Structure formats: C-alpha cells, structure tokens
Hints:
- This protein has helices at 47-55, 66-70, 78-88, 90-93, 97-117, 121-124, 145-157, 174-188, 204-214, 231-240, 254-263, 278-291, 304-314, 332-336, 363-369; strands at residues 3-12, 25-33, 38-43, 58-60, 63-64, 132-140, 162-166, 193-197, 219-223, 244-247, 268-271, 296-298, 320-326, 348-350.
- By secondary structure, it is of the alpha/beta class.
- It folds into two domains: 3-119, 2-Layer Sandwich (Enolase-like, domain 1); 124-362, Enolase-like C-terminal domain (TIM Barrel, Alpha-Beta Barrel).
- An eight-stranded parallel β-barrel has the order 6-7-8-9-10-11-12-13, surrounded by six helices. A three-stranded antiparallel sheet has the order 1-2-3, with helices on both faces.
- It is globular and about 60 Å long.
Amino acid sequence: MxxxxxxxxxxRQPDVRFLCDSGQDALIVRVETDAGITGIGEVDSNPMAVxxxxxxxxxxxxxxxxxxxxxxxxPFETERLWHKMYRANIYGGRRGVGLHAMxxxxxxxxxxxxxxxxxxVWKLLGGGFHGKMRCxxxxxxxxxxxxxxxxxxxxxxxxxxxxxxxxxxxxxxEKTDIALVREARKGLGDGPDLMIDAGLVWDSKxxxxxxxxxxxxxxxxxxxxxxxxxxxxxxxxxxxTDVRIAAGEEESGRLSFIELMDRGRIDVVxxxxxxxxxxxxxxxxxxxxxxxxxxxxNHGFTTYxxxxxxxxxxxxxxxxxxCEFVAEEETNLRESVTRQKLRAKDGYLEIPQEPGLGxxxxxxxxxxxxx
Length: 371
C-alpha cells in the first residue's frame, strides 16, 4: 500500500464570532492510498498556515511541504514517516505549526492502518484500559456570573459529573473572577468536579491569589493561568498551592512537554492530539508523564474527529484521567462535519470499537463549509 494524495481541507462557518471557540472553523487532513483506503486527521491551529505546511512546495531538503515528504510511502511505517517529516521541515517545523501539520497526517496514517487491519486505533496502540471514559463538559464562561451558574445547572442536569468553564470574562478583576467561580459552583452543587480555565490572563502572584480564593469552591484544577512560556511562573504557582495546576495544550512535541513538566512542575498534563505530533508522539509524551507520576487529560475544542482520536489514545495509556468534551451548543460546524454525533451518557463517552478512528466525515457537510 502506498500514499497517493494528501489534502488539507479548510472549513469555516459563515459567521465567526470574536471569541476563543476553535470549533468555528476546522482543518481536516485527508490521506488517500492506492488500496482505496482513506485516512482522516484534524489540526487545531492556524488553519491556513497548516495548509501551507502540508501542501507547500519543495524549497530545500530541510524546508519541504509535508505532502511531498510522505507521497509514495507505506502508511504503516508511522514511526519512520514521523521522523522523515520532522527532518524534512526542521527549519520551520520543530515546534508550533510544523508539528501541528505533522499531527494531522500522523493521525490519518493511524486511521489508515486501523481500517486496513480491521482494528480500532487503540488496539494497534496496545490499549484497552477502559470500556468507557469519564468526560467533562467543556464550556466558555457565560457572559456574567449568573449566566455561568445557569450553564452549570444545565450541564449538571445533563448528567455530567465534571464541568469546566474558561476564558472571557475571567481576568477582568478580582470581584468578577471570584463571582464566576462562585456561581459555577452554586449551579453545579456539591457533587460534580469543577475545573477553571483562566485563559492565560495573570502573572504568577495574581494566579496564586486566585487559586487560594477559588479553593473555597473546591475546584478540581486551575488551567492555564499564565503565559505558556512562563515555566518558572508555573513552578512558583504549583509549589505554592494545593490546587492542581493544569496546562499543555499550547505545547507541541515531547521536548516542550518535558520543559513544562520538569521546569513548570504542573500537576495535570493536557495534550492535544492535533498539535503535539499525533498518536506517534502522544504515546511518548504520555510515557514521560507516567514516569513522573503525572495524570493525562486531552485537549480538544474542535470537531468530533479530535475527540474520537483522544478516546483511542486515552484508552491506550495507564495515566489517563478524563476526556474533554465540548458542551457548547451553538456551533453547527462541529455537529455537522462527521456522520457520527458523539453524546455523553451519565458523564461518560464510549470507547470507539470500529476500525481506524471509527468516525466518518460527512463530505456533503464539508462541501458546505469548505473555504
């Protein structure tokens, strides 16, 4: 079997609001083979930059479009192709967009392998730790503390046992920050876990003050309170509070995660399969976290392709903690681009059992949203 085509497909809703909801557009990677088997991947990044990294021309031997790098290759050789892509784009691809683009291709290659062998990706990865995975409802904050409380009640009533709120209007002032968390806890009641995603808004001293204030409401973790490069700030914060500090969605590649774990001293490692280097690299990151006694949670605020890939991966590692599941109800792209619509039942998602990723793109929907 040989790879015959790699395509990066940019999808976008007609109306994109100015907020941190990465489900308003999507970058889908499609890899075709001469055996008639097609693999699907996704990248949550700057979509047109990723498209250029994949479909761009040959410049020289360390700056080459990734599609050309894997064309004609055997899709089963995922480890070798990962290193070939890394080496062929090493000028621009050691971090960030280059690794993101590799992630989408790597994900599609594992999808092809699973389909060819009739096995789910998690089984190819040696997994089988879970029959189902606990998930948390992931949502932006409401426009006000009171609206946040209403959302919390809605997610609790849907059966979620954990809920996360994040980003605006967190960071406006101390009073608002505390009110947002207070109303979220009031809406959830005492039982469910409450996670807070600050959205990169503070310095380490302010983050410590907020962590201490939020601890009154029993938050499970405080996510990304600092700039992602402020590793020393993360260390100071993590060592000074009992609140778990979570981060990692901004990182790409295991070397970045080593920096975050060893220098930043975080408590929960968050990995996005569409940014970190795909399944091939994510397995290594999970092993590094396991060696350090750290739990893993995925990051995924895009389509069900990302969530499904995360379920395969989380089922393949011993330190999986919980799965992020977007509960936002207004984004129609997320709900449209795949034939399968994932639904949580009593706060859990079923582990996919179909070959490959086990999720199919709705190409009619792709045609509607394609840019």
